[in-house]
Design goal:
single chain, Aminopeptidase, two-stranded antiparallel ribbon
């Protein structure tokens, strides 16, 4: 889809429905990164040291954010969040966000945020994060945790620019066994 004629006043931010899932999965979620976060853990008995370091790659990494269709289906349930941004002139979906709620604590996990490539850098991602903040506040949640692979450096910069703070990591968190970095935002 070409971005000519993009008109922000013609956008709708709405709850996603099951028929939106194939369109969301078809969005261009490719990204490029010149950096990754390298994680080092030193376990010395009673002390554990974790080091996170930005590492420049020898060549550009081309990758794709692969949203899990099952996660999106689960996000359709009550007390989960699935929001799409749609151009009301042509009904094209330009991006989406999904978040799941931890059933045992007042925390939501932001799992997917995708903006179709031609529409990036137009504040759509920031606006989607604002929508999920409002949603989380309405559900009396206290924190949003953003799960980001160490290889998605552009997303790490995006999260930090929105006020998310690094709060931990998990080895082999994603289906492809990649490390997840967690960034938190208090509501």
């Amino acid at each position: 889809m070409h971005s000519a004629g993009f008109d922000p006043s013609q956008l709708i931010f709405r709850d996603g429905v099951d028929t939106d899932i194939p369109y969301c999965l078809a969005l261009d979620s490719d990204f490029h990164s010149d950096h990754v976060w390298q994680m080092t853990v030193q376990d010395a008995g009673e002390e554990v040291r974790v080091s996170c370091r930005k590492q420049r790659l020898p060549r550009r990494l081309d990758s794709r954010h692969a949203a899990d269709p099952q996660h999106l289906e689960l996000a359709l349930r009550r007390k989960h969040c699935f929001v799409v941004v749609q151009d009301k002139r042509n009904n094209h979906i330009l991006g989406f966000v999904s978040m799941r709620v931890d059933e045992t604590s007042p925390v939501a996990y932001l799992q997917n945020i995708v903006i179709d490539r031609p529409f990036r850098r137009r504040s759509l991602g920031s606006r989607l994060v604002h929508v999920v903040q409002v949603w989380a506040s309405e559900y009396r949640l206290r924190q949003i945790l953003f799960e980001i692979p160490t290889t998605n450096y552009p997303c790490i910069l995006f999260a930090k620019a929105l006020g998310f703070s690094f709060c931990g990591f998990n080895d082999h968190h994603f289906a492809n066994r990649e490390i997840a970095l967690f960034f938190s935002l208090s509501i």
